[in-house]
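Thread title: Can someone regenerate the structure for this chain?

I was given the following input by a collaborator and told the matching structure tokens would be attached. They weren't. Posting the sequence so someone can regenerate them.
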Amino acid sequence: MKVILPKKQKLNEKAIVIYTISIITCIIAIIIVILSFFYGSDELDRLVTIGGSSSTQDDMNYQLLVSNFDNIFQNQLEDYNIDVDVKKKDENQDLIYTYYTKEESKENSYDLHLNIPYINIDNEIIDQYNQEIKETFEDKAENTLKTENRNTIYSVQYEATIENDILSLMIRSDLKEGASAQRVIIQTYNYDLKNNKEVHLEDVITNKQWTVEDVEAKVKDKITTEQQRVQDLISLGYSVFERNPEDEMYKVENSKVFFIKDGNIYIIYAYGNENLTSEMDLVIV
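Best answer:
Regenerated them for you:
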């Protein structure tokens, strides 16, 4: 009896190539995340540069910073070293500390998760900062505690750094009241401890190899890309917050909300500061 074996099917070479590339891409992505976690961005830069272009490296680092933005807020002033004497209001506290904290909820009325900072420096400019922080975040919390049946969810968190004698504080609040859209408010305060003055965005970008024109071009490119995405969503019937890349708000001189961390400048356009929205744009230089 003659046995006839079935013919072996020829593998689809195109499919094999696609699967192989997909698997390799996933493995590389996992390795990059692990290396970033264990070795930090500097070591990751060195490793990625081997066999790769600097632009690819920069893109990867940029995306890591953007994706990690929500994790920045740890309600603390990071470890720092300064070469100047700073007069504190309370010698027993750090330069920035949590002075108002509250975890409280009441069914159908509110759910609060609050960590509001205080800048512990004896200075008139700092006094103005602290008053603004109180009026924006603490007063809202106190008013919320007096409400009934509003279903308010309100959180406040912050992060602070000191780099090159510049104190940088960023405060974020998330607010959801009843059926209204969620609102995200972000405020920042940047202060030169050495020269006792407020720091503006133009002051710090000159310390990097950027010009005002370079930064504004990068911001406009980001906003233009986001607006194109918004237009695509609008064409599908969604109601989305729109941007105008030509708006004067995107000029460096008008960009007041920025944060300094690990040598990077986070320029933040939190539209919830003025509107009922959680939309925001982030540009890092």
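The mean pLDDT is 85.
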